[in-house]
């Protein structure tokens, strides 16, 4: 019994112990299996390429910690470089694909230390501070991706900015060892100091297959148009010296030369110019009486007098940038930073970012053989143009030269624009400073949907010698409720305008503006006196328009402030027999132009007409005394892509008192020239911007059988 009791008492106690032991065993086994499945899944679905997980960051991995890669002597060397490469032959745009942001993705290879078989590095300097800044800027930008499978463009972490520090063969072999090299397809290299003694080639000597090159010293012989990108030579002074922006205008010196290493023949010629022009030209050289070092680099001397560099550049209107051993010079960046207009004399040099930047607006390029004539050439540039160039030069530096970040982002944006041309930046976006230079002037494209009525419009009357009809026009216009100001552009330099007491008495300000030359373009000059958004351009013989017609025209313009709104309409037609455009003023069902003898438009177009008119159109108009209205129609249509708006039935302007002697448009040759104008302008614009429409604007109750006194515009004239 006792034995049974002992057994029985022990039995129930042993069973739970066995279950606990088994439970621990099974839990342990299950955990091992689960961990195995997780590990298998991770290895199955984790990216196989270490490239995609190796994010580029110098902060996380120093150069000394980067893995060492030995280059076997027998490693392949890329080809020298294909000069025939273009985007459609050596670049795989399909890698870029479509993305909603229209932005390429750029992958930076992980940092590695390349050495030859005996352990000697392929570069004497390793990763330079400038290249580190460049790669860091790209990795922080929207262009960057750490997913190699999404990359459109590949950038090696191999620094080839300065060829002086490179071992040519070994760097080429290192490039060929990159896992995605594929003969350089879709790879981008940055180089600022190409070539070496004695020839100083204008492109990087490292063999690079089909890789794109962003180079700092291209010539027309080595630059692959539309493939390579010409970049500036970065100046260390950009980061080390703060040059506050200086207002454009005359400076202490007219011309300044600050380069210390230039060819002997150039210095002799500059010294001769100095003798001829005295204090107007400052010719600086390195300081022989200072000890070598950082301090001496920032100094320039002339006959024992020491000047701070680059600060002295701000004291000159023009600064000479001559070629040295290399075409690209860091001096160009210093000059732009100082707001000094660079005078570039480096034959065959491809200017930085010239694919998108209009260097005519910020510099003067003179052939090297014209150096003796430099002073005369620069003196012929108007002061106002010099000031605009000074302003543009400084802005070019701020936007595109001031840092490795700016240089890198500009390079990638240019390549991006090639790949996504439909989303590319416009000429204006590349070349116009973002700030509005014309105070109180806004583009009509960005006005409210309907500008307010209260400011009214400014009437600009162009006149020469028709005093009687001029006074009648002023009298009629003064009756328009929305008239804010009257400006009379007096275009007769041989005769003074009437005395103030003889002018009609009007309720709005009236001012006479005398011009220096008799030019038709004077009517579109952006006078400071124009304070309203709306402008009515009107001739001194347009006496037939009623105040209701003019007020209605203004109301229509308020609804369409980006259009030309006028009265008589005209049409351009293609003459199949003659194979050219023809001007048509007869009865037609279509309109593509309105005459600016009486037309409303936004004053913004005065600035575009005066300062941004393409080619020689403005000069052509002034020389022929014709077609300024056609030119304005071309300009507005080209900017807006829209047709003008014809208002009211007016078809022709007739001046009862005018004779053929009085009116330009009555001359027999006038109409022939009008057709010539259209063909001339279409050639300059390289397109036909004029748009054809088949409608006009009339008051809502214009033809309705309704009491006249209840209509807003009862007095609408006939044809």
Automatic annotation (TrEMBL):
Which EC class is this protein assigned? transferase
Instruction: Output the GO biological process annotations, alphabetical, semicolon-separated.
Output: heparan sulfate proteoglycan biosynthetic process
GO: which molecular function terms?
A: glucuronosyl-N-acetylglucosaminyl-proteoglycan 4-alpha-N-acetylglucosaminyltransferase activity; glucuronosyltransferase activity; metal ion binding
The cofactors it requires, by name, are:
Mn(2+)
The reply on keyword DNA repair is no
Subcellular locations according to the entry? Endoplasmic reticulum membrane; Golgi apparatus, cis-Golgi network membrane
Q: Which GO terms describe its cellular component?
A: endoplasmic reticulum membrane; Golgi apparatus
What pathway annotation does it carry? Protein modification; protein glycosylation
Query: What InterPro entries does its record include?
Result: Exostosin, Exostosin_GT47, GT64_dom, Nucleotide-diphossugar_trans
* TM region(s), chain numbering: 24-46
Q: Where is the Exostosin GT47 domain?
A: 101-381
Record keywords, A-Z: Disulfide bond, Endoplasmic reticulum, Glycoprotein, Glycosyltransferase, Golgi apparatus, Manganese, Membrane, Metal-binding, Signal-anchor, Transferase, Transmembrane, Transmembrane helix
Domain Glycosyl transferase stretches: 457-702
Known function: Glycosyltransferase forming with EXT1 the heterodimeric heparan sulfate polymerase which catalyzes the elongation of the heparan sulfate glycan backbone. Glycan backbone extension consists in the alternating transfer of (1->4)-beta-D-GlcA and (1->4)-alpha-D-GlcNAc residues from their respective UDP-sugar donors.
So what family is this one in? Belongs to the glycosyltransferase 47 family.
Record's subunit section: Part of the heparan sulfate polymerase, a dimeric complex composed of EXT1 and EXT2. Could also form homooligomeric complexes. Interacts with NDST1. Interacts with GALNT5.
Q: What is the protein named?
A: Exostosin-2
